[in-house]
Amino acid sequence: MDFSLSQTQVHWRDRVKAFMDAHVFPNEERYEREVEEGARWKELPLVEELKAKAKAQGLWNLFMPPLQGHAPLNPDFRFESPGLTNLEYALCAEEMGKVKWASELFNCSPPDTGNMEVLTRYANADQQAAWLKPLMDGEIRSTFLMTEPAVASSDATNIETSIVRDGDDYVVDGRKWWSSGMGDPRVKIAIVMGKTDPGAAAHAQQSMILVPADAPGLTVEKMLTVFGYDHAPEGHGQVLLDKVRVPAGNMLLGEGRGFEIAQGRLGPGRIHHAMRSIGASERALEEMVRRLMTRVAFGKRIHEHSVWEERVAQARIDIEMTRLLCLKAADLMDREGNRAARTEIAMIKVAAPNTAVRVIDNAIQAFGGGGVSQVSHLAASYASQRTLRLADGPDEVHRRTIAKLEFRKYRDLIAE
Ligand SMILES: Cc1cc2nc3c(=O)[nH]c(=O)nc-3n(C[C@H](O)[C@H](O)[C@H](O)COP(=O)(O)OP(=O)(O)OC[C@H]3O[C@@H](n4cnc5c(N)ncnc54)[C@H](O)[C@@H]3O)c2cc1C
Predict the structure, then answer these.
(1) Is 161 in the pocket of ligand 1 (CB under 6 A)?
(2) Where in this chain does the record put each Acyl-CoA oxidase/dehydrogenase middle domain (predicted)?
(3) Atom 6 of ligand 1, residue of closest alpha carbon
(4) pLDDT tens track for 164-220
(5) Is it the case that residue 69 has pLDDT exceeding 60?
(6) Which domains does the chain have, with CATH numbers?
(7) Helix, strand, coil shares, percent, the chain, to 5
(8) Please, what is the Cα angle at 346 between 340 and 348, to 5 degrees?
């Protein structure tokens, strides 16, 4: 076991880091200004400007690992990407995670990354040409419509949206919410999960279908807030699908294959969130330490009050443990595939946002009132990280996966 970084790992991490230092941190205020000016739901000039810069430097589609036994169905399909391994990308994503809007600049932001993986693995040549190509080129954005307000969607067998074949079309009916990205006018395509056969076995009822965002019958009923933040300019929508008609060729992979696709989609996506959460934790710790060392209370610098030694030390311990687990999960995905790494993916999906929430909470404390206000990014960062204990499945569901695998080791104890 060798814990040192390879030249390739250092090369890509440092290039992303240099881009962040040169173009992202210095533009945090401009980003907020552009969000605040005019309409809420829009394209931001800064983002398009920096996307072009990142692309020109080859810092593009870094999330897409070398294709492991699932080459695109269209042999002519080509996209720009250095083909980083999950392990190499993990180090880059940590850097991107320090600023909440940075991953998009490298075409590495959710939900597009998960959707692009789905289209790479499961879409046919026509679907890839229509939607994957412009997504990989950063020309359009996408959304993923699985969760529904009416049912406990952490158990996806509950999803009720209906997808019914009618001649050469499918007709889609249902209500979705938490459709991330839905406010962004660049969103042109949605991957929608719904039931094609309610009478089939539980895991064969669901399918996934491509629905253009401008399809008649698709309406955004409202945008949701997260602790009061609207997450403009992308946001999270509640979406009504009322007799939405799409060509039969929009079905992904085939009827009843929805769970198979969902598994393929969420493995990498979950670890990407974790990688960025580590970056958010690392930035919060740095800011906490700088603050504690430069303010005086009750006759000494705040860091000299011993309670802060305890908190800073615990943050460092938690971040290091979380990072090692994340890198282990990424390495296992590279060497043995996503399925073999499912316990590690579940563990890091729980560990990373929980660590971030604790570290950021203490950083907020160190900043006093400023920490919960708009003068610091910590309040927004806390709100975002807290959602990751729910998004892509709540903690309990991932703990269930981990516990099941653990119990399975001792199943002889309850055998007849
Ligand atoms: C910011 C944000 C962005 C999101 N983006 C998207 C998106 O782009 N697309 C999309 O489709 N969805 C998205 N989601 C939805 C998210 O994936 C769901 O909220 C999540 O899967 C939980 O489903 P639910 O809200 O229906 O909660 P429910 O399924 O109703 O669960 C509620 C609670 O029940 C408990 N619970 C569930 N199962 C168990 C169990 N086995 N044991 C013990 N307790 C359990 C958990 O505490 C859970 O939080 C997003 C959510 C948020 C907050």
Answers:
(1) no
(2) 144-242
(3) 178
(4) 999 999 999 999 999 999 999 999 999 999 999 999 999 999 999 999 999 999 999
(5) no
(6) 7-139 (1.10.540.10), 143-256 (2.40.110.10), 259-414 (1.20.140.10)
(7) 55, 15, 30
(8) 110
